[in-house]
Design a protein that fits this description.
Protein name: TetR family transcriptional regulator
Strand content: under 5%
Helix content: 55-70%
Keywords: DNA-binding, Transcription, Transcription regulation
Shape: elongated
Number of helices: 9
Oligomer: single chain
Organism: Paraburkholderia unamae
InterPro entries: Homeodomain-like_sf, HTH-type_TetR-like_transc_reg, HTH_TetR
Distance between the termini: 50 Å
Amino acid sequence: MQTVREAAKEARREAIFAAAEALIRRTGHTDFSMRDLAQEAGLSLATAYNLIGSKSTVLYALLNRRADALAEPGVAPKAGVAMRDHLGNSARRAVRQFTGDPEFFRPLMRFLLSVPDPVHRPAFMARGLAYWRGVMQPLESAGRLPDGMRASDFASVVHLVFTGALDMWIHEEYSARRFQQELDKCLALLMLAIRKDGNARPGRSAD
């Protein structure tokens, strides 16, 4: 059971996250200092540092909290949904996670892409890879992947394409539509290797 002290500490942490998001949305950038962040949260600078740490730690933690929404249940295909549609729905969901809120994600990611972080960046990347592994797992379970291939193999390819297209969108070199198209092309190529059913020969198209 959470103690009063722990609850108060958690409330202050939530205030810091809320303040960081508010500053990003209000200013359109991440150039604010930890002092600005503490002031926005109604806390002392020392308290803000003690609760979370540096600004990059705060922003990476904020990103990972938002990314958690993508990993919520619902990755598995619904009954009666063709695998091609399952992949397309999963791709659109992943893209909308970012392109649906560009005023927040573009400035946040521009900052974080330039900051090395041995803890929170790997955690963010692992979340994305886990999402795509969950998307691909039904194909492996149904025996529809080429011999010797695993869901994790397909997931790593899609994740690499997704993160590359995400970087292009963040820097406004891709529109949201182009971001989606690049991911769709990757999935269409992978579909060429997916078996129509668990007993079919590798290399035949599916659904």
